[in-house]
Amino acid sequence: MMQHSLSIQAHFRPEVVERILRVVRHRGFELCALNMTPRTEAEGINIHLTFASKRSVDLLSAQLSKLMDVACVEIQQLTSQQIRA
User: What is the pLDDT of residue 79?
Assistant: First the structure.
């Protein structure tokens, strides 16, 4: 399995993280790590996901981009140090 990483900018709503995690699970991706931090703009959050799958990361990125309250999804490159951790 390959590890992938996504950076997501979203509007903060109580249900936004639940929706993101549901899409990750339903699309067959295994969550390895999640980090969420508030953005300086009002009502915004940054979410960083690391997950494993044999499937294309583009599939998950496209599905997450369609979610309400998700403003931006970017695919991040993992370094060899991040993969070993």
Answer: 55
